[in-house]
């Protein structure tokens, strides 16, 4: 039987330099490695940014989402807005609340606070 291990979360991006700047500036993620792709280690999870010029891959419409947990959603949303990042209205669900933003390529990112 095969053993499946988690590898990474990745997003396709048009411009690797622009994407690196966004994730570094907006979230303070530190670039850990760059070759054909950019890699960030986020709390032990590998996030990769993969450049592509294929418009079918650059739709920003997938089922996966990068979800970042925060202790104070209102403060985090305010910090994002201060960095000129458009932030959705806050959505309430049974076990918490969240806002969503998009990176420059339209990939959705969820900022989440547990109830």
Percent strand: 35-45%
* Beta strands, count: 8
Cα-based radius of gyration, to the nearest Å: 15 Å
How many structural domains in the coordinates?
A: 1
CATH architecture: Roll
Mean pLDDT: 92
Topology pattern, helix = H, strand = E: EHEEEEHEEE
Question: How many distinct helices?
Answer: 2
Distance between the termini: 39 Å
Tell me, what is the CATH class?
A: Alpha Beta
Strand order of the largest sheet: 1-4-3-2
How can the largest sheet be summarized? 4 strands, mixed
The CATH topology is given as: 2,3-Dihydroxybiphenyl 1,2-Dioxygenase, domain 1
SSE-based structural type = alpha/beta
Give me the CATH superfamily.
Answer: 2,3-Dihydroxybiphenyl 1,2-Dioxygenase, domain 1
Q: Helical percent range?
A: 10-25%
Inertia-based shape: globular
- Unreliable runs: none
Could you characterize what this model shows?
- By secondary structure, the protein is of the alpha/beta class.
- It has one domain: 2,3-Dihydroxybiphenyl 1,2-Dioxygenase, domain 1 (Roll), CATH 3.10.180.10.
- 19% of the residues lie in helices and 37% in strands.
- It contains two helices and eight strands, in the order βαββββαβββ.
- It has helices at 16-27, 73-82; strands at 9-13, 31-34, 38-42, 45-51, 66-69, 91-93, 96-102, 108-114.
- The strands form two sheets. Strands 1-4-3-2 form a four-stranded mixed β-sheet, covered by helices on one side. Strands 5-8-7-6 form a four-stranded mixed β-sheet, with helices on one face.
- Strand 7 and strand 8 form a beta hairpin.
- The chain is globular, with a radius of gyration of 15 Å.
- The termini are far apart.
């Amino acid at each position: 039987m095969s053993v499946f291990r988690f590898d990474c979360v990745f997003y396709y991006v048009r411009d690797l330099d622009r994407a690196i700047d966004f994730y570094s500036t907006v979230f303070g993620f530190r670039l850990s490695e760059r070759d054909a792709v950019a890699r960030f280690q986020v709390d032990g999870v590998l996030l990769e940014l993969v450049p592509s010029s294929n418009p079918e891959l650059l739709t920003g419409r997938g089922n996966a989402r990068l979800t970042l947990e925060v202790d104070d959603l209102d403060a985090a949303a305010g910090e994002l807005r201060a960095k000129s990042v458009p932030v959705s209205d806050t959505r309430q669900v049974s076990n918490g609340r969240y806002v969503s933003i998009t990176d420059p390529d339209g990939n959705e990112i969820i900022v989440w606070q547990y109830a």
